[in-house]
Design a protein that fits this description.
Structural class: alpha/beta
Order of helices and strands: EEEEEEHEHEEHEHEEE
Number of strands: 13
Distance between the termini: 31 Å
CATH architecture of the largest domain: Alpha-Beta Barrel
Helix content: 10-25%
Largest sheet: 5 strands, mixed
Shape: elongated
């Protein structure tokens, strides 16, 4: 695919708002340059005073596919995200069937997403009572982290505590119950 440039007098960058050209090739941003640095013979689109902004990331979405696609699947979730300016969705792990608590479930989710997505997506891994042996494999398979939604509240109800620390390799989560003689520990790779 050939190189394209999107120009505007208001491009939002980490260094402020300025006139710039965003260079795009194969759907990826290559660089943001001054308009006078454009290569010759490049295809351009000039957006004038309209602002060009970075895409948004929504790190807490519920894409219920596979299993509950009628609630919201990849096609509808990613179309809505694109319309709203999101370029990346991070799916919560426990609403789809199967829940994203094993690599096999993650692969089923990836297969369901194939050829449906208008924006990028990734999935959190899920922590449930019987999947501690799958957490490291999920990290290796590419989840950016794990969702422990509800764990603190449930532990509090039981009189327990949750300890989260970093050990240099990743994050260590320990759950303590008042009647337990030892903790349950789960390690995840650093994101």
């Amino acid at each position: 695919m050939r190189l394209k440039a999107f120009l505007a007098r208001r491009v939002v960058t980490p260094h402020g708002i300025k006139a710039a050209a965003v260079l795009i090739q194969d759907g990826r941003i290559l660089d943001v340059v001054s308009p006078d640095q454009l290569p010759a013979q490049i295809c351009t689109a000039d957006f004038g005073e309209a602002a060009i902004l970075p895409g948004l990331v929504d790190s807490h979405v519920h894409i219920n596919e596979p299993g509950r696609t009628e609630w919201e699947g990849f096609r509808t979730a990613t179309r809505a995200a694109a319309a709203g300016g999101c370029t990346l969705l991070v799916d919560m792990p426990l609403n789809c069937l199967p829940a994203t608590t094993t690599v096999a479930a993650l692969e089923a989710k990836r297969k369901a997403a194939d050829h449906q997505c208008q924006v990028d997506w990734m999935a959190w891994g899920g922590v449930v009572s019987d999947n501690h042996e799958h957490i490291e494999d999920l990290a290796t398979a590419g989840v950016p982290g794990v969702g422990i939604s509800g764990m603190r509240e449930r532990l509090r109800q039981l009189g327990g505590t949750l300890e989260i620390t970093s050990n240099g390799r990743g994050t260590v989560v320990k759950a303590y119950l008042p009647t337990a003689t030892s903790s349950t520990s789960t390690s995840t790779a650093a994101a």
